[in-house]
């Protein structure tokens, strides 16, 4: 099969441990004849009775374009749904891989020819052992939301119009942010089509977005994290910080922590500035004590119009010689010669002492005035330090609960131990929350166990019911064909989910995953009668195979040879899978 692939070397910039940048050679492998490779695989599958047709595929060959970035490499694969285990990494046809991101620009620059081959594939002819058989090709897409957006040149899930299926528009920031209580996240807006994507950009695939399979596993990972687990984390923290006025939701707690850190930084700057002002004032007092009164006619040009100019005496490393012009007499004075050092006092000083008080201020009076400012500044330093210590203590206590999962006897520690007990140790980040962990968490017995760790409350009961609904919906999102009755049941559960999220989390922001499921899951399954045999997790199994090969082929320096070694490995795995039990006959 290697003859149907090309491998070229790419210069990839990398950053060394010292911080310098250099380039290394990495392989870019891509298929050159998708039709020939697919024809060979279908022939092998058919001749070994491993090519299946059912209600979901009909009489067509159903293929799914998928991909993902794992480590530093992006892989593009083709999944054949007419096999018994389409998500098996050994069954997936490797179309290409390269070092880089899975964004639209990188995919277009590296794999444009591969997408053209996929788009041109409308019908395929293969040999079943007796005759040539021609069948239509049914094409779909699957992947995480970011990848689907990249296929269509969509700006991505973090933009205002984040949904790749419709033109819903909302923001999660600012005073007009969309919240669950008021935003109709369960309603689909005007649908996007291939033509609308072509009008707005350069999609890589010639398929309407309705042909994209919803990434249900990623959707549940994100929604369970945001609307269930984050609640438990926030509620446990809220209970542990009972004597501190702290918000209940994790989202608001993180914002409150940021505000505490900003407030602490503000008081640190204030104390630092006040201490600097005190040093400057003391230096002014010291300089005034050394100054001898000089007649104006004897003054040199560097001196200002103050009767006690200290510009040639004061330590300029401590006190600067910035000046101002008096709006009454129009003379120029150094701020320090008028006993003014703080930023706030400088901003309001517009007149000299003589014009302001209508008397000539003597040196002794000015010294007394500056000494009084020193005492006031010292008092302000003490006051600001007390406030800073209070804010710092509160911040450190909150940080301890956030980062250390609490100490023995705290609610956060109890919750952490409970999550570990049910097999969900890395629950604090959706990137760590695997599909298996979500399934474990959404077992009814585990839901009850976690909820019962907390003091009973009406909101907790709503969280329990919402978790039950997620459990039912996730179980229903399998590859089986759904009857109209089953779809209607799912639609009712989605309605209940929407109502519970609105009442339980009225102030929480909207996630694109929540919108995708609430607004599009039912219409998707009504059209296809199934969520499909493929899922976005399928290609992620290939990352493990790539990691093993990288370790095995570490001594291989030539990027071209290494690229072909990868291609040979995966095409050989495809052949063994296609032969099934007959591979060694």
TrEMBL record:
Its taxonomic path starts at:
Eukaryota, Metazoa, Ecdysozoa, Nematoda, Chromadorea
Per its UniProt record, what Pfam families does this chain match?
Answer: DUF1280 (PF06918)
What keywords is this UniProt entry annotated with? Answer: Coiled coil
Give the highest taxon in the source lineage: Eukaryota
Mind telling me which InterPro entries this protein's record contains? DUF1280
The chain's coiled-coil residues are: 250-277
Q: What is this protein called?
A: Zinc finger PHD-type domain-containing protein
